[in-house]
Amino acid sequence: MKHAWLLAALALSIVACDQTGDGAEQLNTADLETRADTPASQASEGVDSDAEDDADVAEQTMQQMAQPVACAQDEQTLFFCEAGRKQIAVCGVSDEQGNQVAQYRYGSDTAEIVLTGGRFSSTPYSGGGESQIQFANGPVRYIVYSRSVRTNFASGEPNNPEFTDGVLVVRDGEVVADRQCTARVESVDVLAGESYGGVSKDIFYGVD
Question: What is the pLDDT of residues 57-112, one digit of tens each?
């Protein structure tokens, strides 16, 4: 009986040792999973990469928001004026392929709206004429214009032209806004339009 009790105690001791060994191996495995060269660390690096991408996008957005409305010295001024507290400008810039494109900017000192890819048009009136640069933004068109309209038709008298510059905002063929210039007007440089895709003979939107 005594020998049988000793054998049972020895068997329990062996089992206990085996269980301790398994626990130690699990602990080592868990410790390995926290090492820097494991997939868990790689996932963390991926998060850092995404954060860097978000930071780049935010920086680009801030740069665009900080872009002045007025054309820079190395840009061609195709149109510029002040409209109350706002400024309207069309500048000749280069795209990513190095092509010359017209860029519309609107805002206070910094641009609130920036659109690229303007098209030019010009047409004569009796004793005047109109030049335009149109930019599309989805269903909305922004049409920068310089207009000269004869106001006196009396024979032998000067025609007394009336000059108007500004930007029309047109949606579905209807003018939803007409922001007219009030100061520092540099009218549409229609002669430069040949360098920006040519000049159409039909204006994009006419007035009655």
Answer: 555 555 555 789 999 999 999 999 999 999 999 999 988 888 899 999 999 989 99
Return d(Cα 154, Cα 195) in angstroms, integer.
39
Global confidence as pTM: 0.66
Chain position carrying tokens 């038709």: 153
Q: Is the CB of residue 143 less than 8 Å from the CB of residue 180?
A: no
Nearest to 204 by CA among 126, 144, 115, 162: 144
- Mean pLDDT for 186-194 is 95
Classify residue 10 as left (phi > 0), alpha (psi -120 to 50) or beta.
alpha
Q: d(Cα 109, Cα 86) in Å, to the nearest integer? A: 8
Which distant-in-sequence residues (6+ apart) come within 8 Å of 152 by Cβ?
Answer: 158, 159, 160
**DSSP-derived secondary structure letter, 96:** T
The whole-chain average pLDDT of the chain stands at 75
Calculate the dihedral angle through the C-alpha atoms of 168, 125, 195, 88, rounding to the nearest 10 degrees.
-30
Contact between 197 and 119 (Cβ < 8 Å)? yes
Domain limits, the chain: 2-64, 68-200
